[in-house]
Specification:
By secondary structure, this protein is mainly alpha-helical. It has two domains: 2-80, DnaJ domain (Helix Hairpins, Orthogonal Bundle), CATH 1.10.287; 123-241, Pectate Lyase C-like, CATH 2.160.20.80. It has six helices and two strands, in the order ααααααββ. It has helices at 2-10, 19-33, 43-81, 87-93, 96-100, 105-118; strands spanning 215-216, 219-220. The protein has a two-stranded antiparallel ribbon. The radius of gyration is 25 Å and the shape is globular.
Length: 241
């Protein structure tokens, strides 16, 4: 039990936190401690971040495994506590006619639709998210090419390795958004709020950032370590060479 308490402590949670809380804490801590957010030349912090990330991953996996086993155990106990079927109920529930009865076409259709709904859909290319509230959402590794995010709120969103090629992000709020290694080629970021956004390693070639907010006073507030900017139109209108 002490081991479990240690895992909760690593994720900055109280013992007994729900699986949803575990997943949320994991995403928040990965956002903070991902090595890509730390300058490569800072070896001490890189080493610390890698250790933190290792601990965070282990804590999440151990707690998920524990909660999965706990749920299965609870389910088994519930099944054992149910009264057994009577012989009449058994024959009624498992009659040969029912076992051999094929699905109707409508039943097949309903079954297929249910399985479709439960499958995560990662290809969101061309979707319309204009003015949507997507704050704190995890959109990492999603295909969002040519999607419309005009005026959308993406503050604190996790979009690590997201494909946003040709996407319309004009007037969107990307305050503290994680866009590490994201593909933003030819993306429209005109007049977007990019304060606090992290574009480390992102591909911004040909992107249009005209009028985008990237400074607070004279201080640059956007992280662009290792970003590809060839051909990008910068906020002041000049083309990056």
């Amino acid at each position: 039990m002490r081991e479990l308490e240690r895992y909760y402590h690593i994720l900055e949670l109280k013992p007994g936190a729900t699986l949803e809380e575990v997943n949320e804490a994991y995403k928040d801590l990965v956002f903070v401690w991902h090595p890509d957010r730390i300058p490569q030349e800072n070896l001490r912090l890189q080493k610390k971040a890698q250790k933190k990330l290792q601990d965070i991953n282990e804590a999440r996996e151990k707690l998920r495994s524990y909660k999965s086993k706990y749920m299965q155990h609870s389910y088994s106990r519930t099944k054992r506590s149910k009264p057994p079927y009577s012989s009449s109920q058994q024959s009624q529930s498992y009659s040969p006619s029912q076992r051999s009865k094929p699905y109707s076409s409508s039943q097949k259709s309903q079954s297929y639709s249910s399985s479709q709904k439960s499958t995560p859909y990662k290809d969101l290319s061309g979707k319309d998210f204009s003015r949507a509230n997507l704050s704190n959402k995890d959109l990492s590794s999603r295909n969002l090419s040519y999607a419309n995010f005009f005026g959308a709120d993406l503050s604190d969103a996790f979009m690590h390795k997201a494909i946003l090629r040709g996407a319309n992000l004009s007037e969107a709020t990307l305050f503290r958004t994680n866009l590490l290694l994201a593909d933003l080629r030819e993306a429209n970021l005109r007049s977007a709020n990019l304060i606090g956004a992290d574009f480390s390693g992102a591909d911004l070639r040909g992107a249009d950032l005209t009028g985008a907010r990237i400074r607070s006073g004279n201080r640059l507030m956007v992280k662009l370590i290792g970003a590809k900017l060839s051909g990008a139109i910068m906020p002041d209108g000049r083309v990056y060479v």
